[in-house]
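QA checklist item 7 of 12: single-chain prediction sanity check.
[x] sequence parsed
[x] length recorded as 568
[x] structure emitted
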Amino acid sequence: MRIGKARYLAPAAAVVLLASACASGDGDSNEDAQERVAALAAEDLNPAPREDLQEGGTFVWALNEYAEQHNMAHTNGNLANVRRTAAAVLPRTSRFGADGTNEPLTDYVLDYGVSDDGLEVYYELNPDAVWSDGEPITSEDYEANWITRSGQRDGDFQVGSTVGYDRVDEFVIEDDLNFSLKFEEPYSEWPGLFSPLYPAEYMEDEELFEEGYSKAYPVTAGPFGDVEFDDVSERITVTKNEDWWGTPALLDEIIFDSMGSDAQAPAFNNGEVDGFYLGYDAAGYELIKDREGTYLTEAVNHGHRFISLNGGSPRLEDVRVRRAISLGIDTDVLSQVSLEAVNWPITGEVNRLLRSSQFGYQDNSEGYGEYDQATAQELLDSAGWTLDEGETVRTNEDGDSLTLDWVVSDDLAVAQDEGDIASEMLAEIGVEVVVQQVPGNALFPEYVIPGNYEMASYVLTGTDPYAGGSKGNYGMPNADGEWGNNLARTSSEEIDGKFDELMSETDPERYAELANEIDRLLWEEVVTIPMFERPGLWALNEDLHNWGEFGLASDYVYEDIGWAKKED
């Protein structure tokens, strides 16, 4: 599961720091909250059959980021908002169900499968599949993507993650429409490869890899295409592909309208947008929860919210300091602030690799995720950060203060709240936190991705149901010392090894055991501080169908999104 970064951070109402928090929403007990989570649907798309939907129309979809880089293989393109556009216009190999099962996406791949020993995967491509420039989609496109994404390509290619592709030992082309991947050991997560797929030339050339899909989609191959970027309105428009060889798209166009998270609910309420991720926007929830004609989804979301600690910072490179930070923040309080106001169950449980709808899901935070100021202070003392009498901020032997920069988007009020509340908590153990507001569109490309931060809170969402691809987010750097998609810049060889073992495992019980072992190791290393599983709460016009919360399916069937037929 290669997890992409998402800025689905929604504003919360003004809050007061609480000394303690209950572990559930709307007055539920913890047991009741767990029952409510267990009862959540795997997906909620306001479903309707195509025959009940009209042909034509425009869907205005609100996003909270106007991303520049749309090459998802690139470090700067590994964003959930980019995925939303790319999935409408570029090839993918698999279609996943709400239960995580997969099948070939026959618009591009007529058939695929794996050998009995798990060491060879074959693909049979759809001969009707063509790029928008008229060139057929062939085995050579897949090979080019594999070479670059596995890290083998000579040149300066800023590849975010090689996970999965680097396990392929040999790429064998039989002809234009048939190829196979050979592995030295089984790779159980192979259905997640090549999603999305880019044309060979944009994987082979350094400049095209870097610039080709920067605010552009020069070549597409999906039910939608003809992608237009409007820098003034910060909108991206995709238009129905009349040359599409698959089931025709119902909509004429989709407009991805970028705006601050706190602006999305008012825009929806005013009829300016047709759907958006509501999540834990308390003010937005109050504004539209009783709005006539609104459909609110309730399902398991394929993401979790957390605090990232930059282990590359001299102040955070010592794991004892990171553990102290984790113990010094009451994440139950932060969860309550975000979830209670939208009446979402608060269980106090979260897992980085497994969702609550998946087999083996459990919380692995014992000893590291609790609120324990006394132990936090002992850890800081042992790490050489002492609090002198009469002082409020710890210093080390060189006189450096333990002051941490927490960056937040200036249009995400909930992130500001999280930073402010956590800073009060950490002040009690002698850690100073400076919350720095930065422009929303700059948060990732200018601060988090290049490592110009020490603390930040955001969300990782899954692009498929698998856990192994998360190695890119949590694993060790490559041979050149580049951390790629691991924005926390800390890990261990043990974590890497466990991920490798996980990706070769085919037994569901052992797979779940390994996923939980990795999650526990990530707690011990304090790569991140998880807060909660993201709510599957979307708001949409009730006449819009087949769009909303997709859960483990990880994407939409874009051609089936449409508006209900008008009554005569």
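[x] summary fact logged: The first strand starts at residue 3 and ends at 6.
[ ] second reviewer sign-off
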